[in-house]
Here is the input.
Amino acid sequence: MTALLDGQPSLLGWDQGYQSGAGSHIATLSDSELEYLSADYALAIDLFSDGLIRFYDNSGSGSMAGATLSLDFAGLGAAISGITLSESSQLSSGTVTATLLGLSSVSISFGDLGFTHDAYPTFELQLSLAPVPEPASIALLATGLAGLVGLAALRRRQGGQA
Here is the structure.
């Protein structure tokens, strides 16, 4: 998965130990790790295999300046069919806008967020995922159907000779 903050590869991924460098904005999805931190550690982004995306404000200020996050989930195994704000009870002001960019990518913009408290407040978005059929499953189904058609043709041929 790849993440860009305000169009730049400035996020630090857990795969690289949250260190700056080439490819630091690329991370593997892990339900047990924060996938990304901003360079100043004020923003943490945690993604889950069920499509949940949780944002943490680590600044301690009770507010978060506006930004746009682009996420590309190449190889997700499911098409993204939608994205919604699912938990916003700790937000007191500001806006969160989520846009589906394609079958595997989204854009999330938030503007000047205020929180109800300043001890690591969060907000969450939920991806809606539609399973993508695996090519092997489709091939197996096609082979089974071809076998049934062949068996029916063989029975007709044998029935006509008797």
